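Q: My labmate handed me this sequence with no annotations at all. I'd like to see what the chain might look like in three dimensions before we decide whether it's worth expressing. Could you predict it?
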Amino acid sequence: MKLETIDTQPTIAAGRFDLRPPRASDAGLLAHYAGDERVARNTSSIPHPLPPGTVEAFLTRVTAPDRTETVWVIDGSRDGGSEVMGAIGMKRVDEGQCEIGYWVAHAFWNTGVASEAVGALVAANPCQCRTIFASVFQDNPVSARVVTNHGFSYLGDAETFSVARNAKVPTWTYSRKMD
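A: Here is what I predict for the chain of 179 residues:
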């Protein structure tokens, strides 16, 4: 199965939450949490301040049948937590290769949410990737620990543009072979 041909997106159970497909009703909480400058600055694609309509356009893009990126909302409501704690996704970069990306709302930093979400998504491997890549900003060593704790190996240094920072940011690149 290729990422772009997924007809139904699975819900993935993690320990304290589920990774579920995004829905239109998530827009308010996604905007609230992603609009936090501390969150946006740790991503390459979230602008700060968050322009009106950004989250709605994101939801349209990641739920389209021809998407090349599949996103799950980190939903803690099963255990009485927040319905939106962050988001995690896999973007196809080549045949059998995906890049994982995630962000967690500031309210849930340092609680293991990112690690649990990455672990659940990698274990499920719903996009059937043979290799999964990850890229983290060098000034975010916590995120680097999340991926290395889940079997990702360091590949090298690079840089990427951060919309929120309006600058190129040094990154560490990692990969994990799944076969």
